[in-house]
Amino acid sequence: xxxxxxxxxxxxxxxxxxxxxxxxxxxxxxxxxxxxxxxxxxxxxxxxxxxxxxxxxxxxxxxxxxxxxxxxxxxxxxxxxxxxxxxxxxxxxxxxxxxxxxxxxxxxxxxxxxxxxxxxxxxxxxxxxxxxxxxxxxxxxxxxxxxxxxxxxxxxxxxxxxxxxxxxxxxxxxxxxxxxxxxxxxxxxxxxxxxxxxxxxxxxxxxxxxxxxxx
Length: 215
Hints:
The protein is of the alpha/beta class. The chain has 5 helices and 10 strands. A 6-stranded mixed sheet has the order 1-2-3-4-5-6. The chain has a 4-stranded antiparallel sheet with strand order 7-8-9-10, with no helix packed on it. The longest helix has 9 residues. The radius of gyration is 18 Å and the shape is globular.
């Protein structure tokens, strides 16, 4: 079994976007029920309903957690059922929410070395005290286990985070494998399989086949 909470499904900046005066954003601000506000893309997964893994820490993560009782503290004055955060890219939309998870509650951040290097290069992420918040590197196409979930990261077409673009590097802005990944996820019994892709530049035949065979 895999339980999935959709924490948010909007693009970068959320909806309505702070500086957009589009018709859709005006409708959302005006309370139109057909244009409901939405936070940025993120999900939480659990194999047992007790331990939860967040996929991408959106800037809206604090509000997303507060809306989901499954993610609330339960057993101690300071605690959390969130045991891990898996990052699929280094964009602000995927990592900024980590700053909401300070206050010395243990969990593990999982990421490709390309993304972990982004955290390492910016000292603001040191508010996640390294003696309680572990950073664990994963390799593409190698399975790791967190919270009873078996997760296999794989490369998808994409590019380096916007703030890391190098115009001098040519058309791909210095992008490399690991900058944008998808996740192939199963439960411990391998009875259920899902694929999560937060952003992707092109749906290839191989990618389409991988998704088509998932539950």
